[in-house]
# Entry
Amino acid sequence: MPRLDIKKTYKLFIGGKFPRTESGRSYPIKDEKGGVVANLCLASRKDFRNAVVVARKAQAGWANMTAYNRGQILYRLAEMLETRRDAFTAEMQVLGLSKQQAKKEVDTSIDRLVYYAGWCDKYSALFSAVNPTATAHFNFSVHEPTGVVAAILPEESPLLGLISTLAPIIAGGNSVIVLASQMKAISAVSFGEVIQNSDVPSGVVNILTGEGQELLPHMASHLDVNALVIARSGVDLKELMVASENVKRLIHWSAISTEQDPYKILDTQEVKTTWHPVQESASSGGGY
Amino acid sequence: MARLFCFPLVLPAMAVKDKSVELASVPVDLMGVNDRIARIKARSIKSEAKVAGLHMALSMIDLTTLEGSDTAQKVRQLCYKAIHPHDELEGIPTVAAVCVYPTMIRTAKEALKGSAVRVASVATYFPSGQSTLEQKLEETRFAITEGADEVDMVISRGRFLAGEYAYVLDEIKAVNALCKEHSVDLKVILETGELGSLDEVRKAADLALLADPTFIKTSTGKIAQAANMQVTLVMLEAISDHYDRTGIRVGMKPAGGISDAKTALHYLMMVKEVLGEDWLTHKRFRFGASRLANDILMQLRKQQTGLYQSPHYFSKD
# Structure
């Protein structure tokens, strides 16, 4: 007897939960032949606002975890994705990728997660500095997460584009709200399930689906978002600067959106420089 | 007005020393309460009405700090916030009162001098209330002498749960008499989170109302289960019935756990629906809260600028 397919309802991923958009809107994703593959949530500015609230709550706890622990969790993401290779490959084939392309996309994504997992407890050692001074002081420059980051993902490369943007941002202790590829977003939504199974604290990663044009102005103008990563080509940056009334970092990755690079971690870091007197305990007794 | 609870109450109106008070049981329809609240929460207020509602909610806040770690400077800072909630916003009201422990009244009075913001003090061995009547009266007297405009007392929940209603009522009456004598407003905290059920909340509210305090109040804010819309609705209904019976308008103060502007607006809708316009004033309705003020201010700024705000740009009390 033929079995009835159980279709997945693709929803948003906000604060470790899978809510529908508060707006109740949706849009269809189509395959090559024009058949509807799935209906996705058309996220509204209020969904984005809700995501910022949970991302802000989660950020400090994530940043205060040890770098080693963050690395373990990123590695766990890779493990979880590995066990679901076939499912992700099949899903991307529905979107029109060849089996070869889909496999490569998934495998590269897994390797990329391992790559950034490794960087978690190393970038700070490599890029921090002890700076020269002319007085009896130490002067250090160290990296700290920027905070809450919003990112708009590339339109192509549904999974690798997500991972290559997400991983360097969270590896450095930021929380993130990503707006997935508009027409190929189902892989991103499915990746929410991987995140939920990997000890990533709720709210650290939030995934929205919808229209870039509608949401970008709100991503740019929200005062509680510290950085905006543009990993999609064809976005007018000037327009976004006008929209922001605040001092927000605007980071442009569209040319390197699917590449791996430790400097991508630094893009969402702030450098904190601090002075510390050299202790002369024997002679001065002061020094502090 | 359609009511959910229309049970007439027959209660002895005088203080009953050493006799048990017979409280008519007013059963609360939990499904009805939840349904009504669900309907209120489904509504949304927009634009000018929202701004007006937010202004009203702000003017009804008792800005509260009740910590063992309170210092004079922290209280002064809170008082500054009470008078200047957010100077970037023009034409916003001050909050209604600052609520502190008795030892901080003098500091608060000094800091609020010249403003309309009142000083409320908790008393009667807040938050547990585990003490004798003499000591509770002594603490209330101290708060009044220090200059409190309002006193927030706690009822003896243990006695109430043991069925010693007369004892609890006499206690409230004694504290109320002392406050009235000095024209100080009394709020009676039921600590609904310790009462177990909405039926008991209604009973405690009816009991407290027998003493005609200025306000009845849900919670101390010191236990996990603080104010929610359910207990507030039940207490508002009790106030409504009390008004129908006596013509006396007692105020209401939900406290603790109300931290966002949207919820505050829902409370105001509920007040307007159950009690009407007469209660939409800080003289008859208050929010006991500390985080709520900032969320209201953020919403007001959002209405003004069209931009979502960050808590970083608002003072932390």
In short: The mean pLDDT of chain A is 92. The first strand of chain A starts at residue 26 and ends at 30. Chain A touches chain B through ten residues (CB under 8 Å). Chain A has one domain: 26-277.
